[in-house]
Amino acid sequence: MSCGICNKNLPSEAGELDYTRCAQCNRCYHFDCCKLKFSSWKSMGATRRSEWICLRCRKTNPPADGNISDEDEEEETGQDVGKMLKEMAKKWDGFEKKVSKKLDDFEANLNFYGEKVEQSCTTLKNLEQKLIAMEKRIDKTETENRELKTRLRTLEIQIQENTQKDFMNMMEISGIQNKEADPKVVTNIILEKAGYQPNEIKTKVEKVTKKVGEDKKEKTVITVKFESQESTLGSPVYQNPTRHVNAGLSHTDGS
């Protein structure tokens, strides 16, 4: 024999006060299952206990007078409370599952973002190392650049010195009245006036037309280039090493 509510077996050798029986459906119930207090059941007496009707039968076939005893109301209220508690327990289980799922999702997100943070830290460390390497390369490049500038300046000085040496071996003759005059003859005359024998000095003579003087008019000029520095006239002048000689004068003018 089993309980009409929980379907669990009832004690086979139970006394009359261990469970209750419905007078209509003849089903048996645990006191806890039908929410009937044992003290109320005991106070009913044998006659009322034999006439006791379960809540299911009372709802299906209510009493003719429509009155429900205090015990019945208490039983019905107890069953309603039990039903409400079961519903609350069911809702709580659902809520607990949702909270548990949210916590699991939150933990998974923490793990995910934790891995992302670790990856970001690794990336930052790699970038920092690359930045340090780039700074070293920049320092090295700046050092090489300074060295190149120094070498370039040295080359510029050497080129300037070589250019000055070339200028020291040059002479310009201007003030030529006769444009048809032979530049070689004019050069020999100038050298003789300077006290040199033309045959003693090897020169390269060229007659050109250029703008000279403040008026910037075109005039005929003879350029004389000496083949060796030892053959130049006089001592070198570095500020303006090119010697300029006016053919109308009887001496050289180093300007």
Task: Please characterize this protein's 3D structure.
This protein has about 260 residues and is α+β, with helices and mostly antiparallel strands. The protein folds into three domains: about 1-55, Herpes Virus-1 (2-Layer Sandwich), CATH 3.30.40.10; about 85-170; about 175-230, no CATH class. Helices cover about 50% and strands about 15% of the residues. The chain is built from four helices and six strands. The strands form two sheets. A four-stranded mixed sheet has the order 4-5-3-6. Strands 1-2 form a two-stranded antiparallel ribbon. β1 and β2 form a beta hairpin. Mean pLDDT is about 75; it is low at about 230-240 and about 250-255. GO terms for molecular function: zinc ion binding.
Average pLDDT level: 76
How is the largest sheet built, in terms of strand order?
4-5-3-6
Count of separate structural domains: 3
Number of helices: 4
Please give the alpha-carbon distance between the first and last residues. Answer: 143 Å
Helix content: 40-55%
Low-confidence stretches: 229-242, 249-255
Q: What is the string of SSEs from the N terminus onward?
A: EEHHHEHEEE
Derived structural class? alpha+beta
